[in-house]
Amino acid sequence: MALEDGILIWCLVVVLAFAGAQVSAESGKPDSGLLTQDRFRADFNAICAAGQKLSEGCTAIRARRLVSPANMPWRAIGRLNFASIDIRQHCTGTLVGERVVLTASHCLYSAARKRWIPPSSLTFAAGYRQGSALTAARGVRYVLDPVQDPSSRDFRAGPAQDWALVLLDSPIGREVGVLSLSDRQGGVVLAGYSALRPHVLSVAEDCGEWRMGTDWQVGLVHCSTMHGDSGAPILIETANGPKLIGVLSTLGTDSEQTVWSVAVPSTTFMPALEEMLAQ
């Protein structure tokens, strides 16, 4: 079985379980998420909140470098928040246009209620850190992969279609900056608001080289990730500064139980972004 095939079979099962960190208003504790997927295996590589050796995976998250939103590219990254009476959740998002935020499409779907979250219920907090943000704006509408139907009650896409562009009600990118896209390959990092440290932006520098799973049209890296990182940007350093080459969808394993972070490459959503920016 090809590496990409083995990973995708697993990812399609857990793509919703890896949604943005959900917190019960009653308990104030993060949803156990992947713990409900019966993934306790002696040979399972450690992921924080999945597998047998939870402490190892969580240690990797705590080891990620904390960054300040004072400088680019970190100030263009933020938390995409949703709150209702009984649910609070967040994912990570990135400004890729003055009014456009890139994230994962499953972040916009409420599995508990089996419905898509209204755009007006979304708030993007750019440069968020410990309760405050450099600036914030609300959602107006969002664009998804054509396979998705936000008028339905179902989420049917796999990782290759797990991207979304959220249009905001104000051009906050003029204030904090915008990240441009790249289709290069090479060593990358990931920046996200993990559920373990949801109030600070941390960078996973253990990702290694970006590689394409050509059969499935996804990118594969080895970043330490968990709930809350969904929608996080995969960044590569270029001569013109960091650029975004993918957006995190979920986690998966191959036949040897090696953990991979699965991402949507920039070439997938670039045409949709160019169309939005032209309007």
How many alpha or pi helices? 4
Count of DSSP E strands?
Answer: 17
What's the alpha carbon Rg, rounded to whole Å? 17 Å
Specify the biggest β-sheet. 8 strands, antiparallel
Percent helix, as a range, is: 10-25%
Q: How many structural units, i.e. domains?
A: 2
Uncertain segments of ≥5 residues (pLDDT<50)? Answer: 1-40
Strand order within the widest beta sheet: 2-12-11-15-16-17-14-13
End-to-end gap = 44 Å
CATH class of the largest domain: Mainly Beta
Q: Structural class from helices and strands?
A: alpha+beta
Shape: globular
Mean pLDDT: 83
| CATH third-level topology of the largest domain | Thrombin, subunit H
